[in-house]
Amino acid sequence: MSEMWINMGPQHPMTHGLWNLRVKIDGEMILDVDPELGYLHRGIEKISEDRHYNEIITLMDRCCYVAGIAWEHLYILAAEEALHIEPPERARFIRVLCEEMQRIASHIMWYAAFVQDVGLMTPFLYGMRDRDLVLDLFQSFTGGRLTYEYMRVGGVRNDLPSAFPAQCRKVLDWLMEKFREYDQLCLGSAIFHKRCDNLGVLKAGDCVDLGVTGPMLRSAGVRRDLRKDRPYAVYDQLEFDVAHAETSDVTGRYLVRMEELRQSVRIVRQVLDWLDRNPGPVLAANLPRWMGAPYAPVGREGYLLKRKYAKGVGLSAIEEPHGEAAAYVVNEGGEHPYRVKFRSPVLINISAAKNYLVGYRVADIPPIMGSVDICVGECDR
Amino acid sequence: MPTEDLATRLRAAAPETTATVEPLPGTDGRLRFPPDQALAVFRACQGVLGYRHLSMVGGIDWVDHREVFYLVWSDETRRYLMLSSDLPLPAPHIESATAVWPSANYHERETWEMVGIGFDHHPDLRHLLMPDGYQFNPLLRSFKLHEPEELEVKVRHV
């Protein structure tokens, strides 16, 4: 049969976002692939050069639409380092709480979308139902369900409501019970194994060479997790295990994410206990809670942009739900950052597509690309 | 790894380099090297020094030159190292790191189209996020975003 290129995307059930996977096929066999990106490029790095430090937080939520608050955390860590600001301890714990809750929401979203790629409809509905509970929790203290705008340079906007810990523990108990059901639905299904085992294999050495990070890397047996290896915020005070698998295939990535869900629940519980014992401020003194208009109101001395900060650079890296995300903020003493650079884990995981797709069949593309967990928002920025 | 130690080990691995190491918080340091020694520095960092993972590549448009930086990670010491090089205008270019870190491919494509830094011997240097044939480098300081007052679009009714 003759070879030909086909486009899977930009609108295709496989893509989960706006991007195009060009595939060279011979019959059913994949010979070559070429990801085509940029459909969702909004120039967030460029716009950031024209925004005050707090205003960039708004952009971060739009950066990744399933893990917005994790990107807020990433940016805030770099910005605070660049501006030489220390947040209160309680704010650090609340941020970790946010990041782990976001990881739960993001992984459940991934689960729901991925199992649908494999052909199972029921788990999709289960996943969306349970993700809503986490979003409800977010709504109770940020007011948002998708774009939160909750973190601030020097802390977070507001403390948690008094009813939050009890509600959160209730949801965590529910989720732990449901995670068992998730596994029964998938791992107990012969269809799931037929469609996922030994598929999309990317071995540890290739993962490291190609820069692949996150659950894809850990499913190949490399236990790199920035929360353990380079503890940021308060992760060094929390107990959790790094989820990993040895199979390097789609099933391995599923197992890693499911274990990460359980570990995230474990972390959130510890953080809730800590927050119960340690009340205190959540924002450093003299820093504004509000996001800010382009021009500061006269007389608002506490306004962040009215101050002059010493020059500095900030580098942060977090274990985002999709993998290793990094931010580099250059502060040249002005009101805006001189340069902001983000590393998107999804972009690099997609860049290795040739290495885990070639040699498989066209029908294998949805489960394999589904197991990568693609968020085009952060990929294109 | 202390910065002096890193400089010594780099000089032992690649004697011809004149790279210097300065401290950068939260990392092993920032290693500055002249652009013509790029490949030797990359090889030494990836090989003997053990920074196997390239995390990101980016460019900064300074007033009188452009800077390219690489963030690399070592699984052994579990630390980052930043490499950076100042490239002279008007045609800033540097050797591609793809021969040493294959993951540099997309990073360099992005840096090339956004900051206008050329990467010599890159296997596939074409647009990544921008459409093919795009003429500008959006992350240069000379590429202006609209001023707030200009955002007011005057609608002309026909």
**Shape call of chain A:** globular
Major beta sheet summary of chain A? 3 strands, antiparallel
Q: Name the CATH superfamily classification of chain B.
A: NADH:ubiquinone oxidoreductase Nqo5 subunit
- The helix fraction of chain A, in percent, is 40-55%
Q: What share of residues of chain B is helical?
A: 10-25%
Q: Assign the CATH class of chain B.
A: Alpha Beta
Helix/strand-derived class of chain A? alpha+beta
Annotation field: number of helices of chain B: 3
If you had to describe this structure to a student in words, what would you say it looks like?
The complex is a heterodimer of chains A (381) and B (158). With 381 residues, chain A is an alpha+beta fold. Chain A has one domain: Orthogonal Bundle (Cytochrome-c3 Hydrogenase, chain B), CATH 1.10.645. Chain A is built from 15 helices and 8 strands. In chain A, strands 1-2-3 form a 3-stranded antiparallel sheet. A 3-stranded antiparallel sheet of chain A has the order 6-7-8. A two-stranded antiparallel sheet of chain A has the order 4-5. Chain A starts with a strand and ends with a helix. With 158 residues, chain B is of the alpha/beta class. Chain B has one domain: NADH:ubiquinone oxidoreductase Nqo5 subunit (Beta Polymerase, domain 2, 2-Layer Sandwich). In chain B, 20% of the residues lie in helices and 26% in strands. A 5-stranded mixed sheet of chain B has the order 1-2-5-4-3. In chain B, helix 3 links the parallel strand 6 and strand 7. The longest helix of chain B has 12 residues. Chain B is globular, with a radius of gyration of 18 Å. The model of chain B has no long low-confidence stretch (mean pLDDT 84). Classes of the chains: A alpha+beta (381), B alpha/beta (158). At the A-B interface, helix 1, helix 8, strand 6, strand 7 and strand 8 of A face strand 3, strand 5 and helix 3 of B.
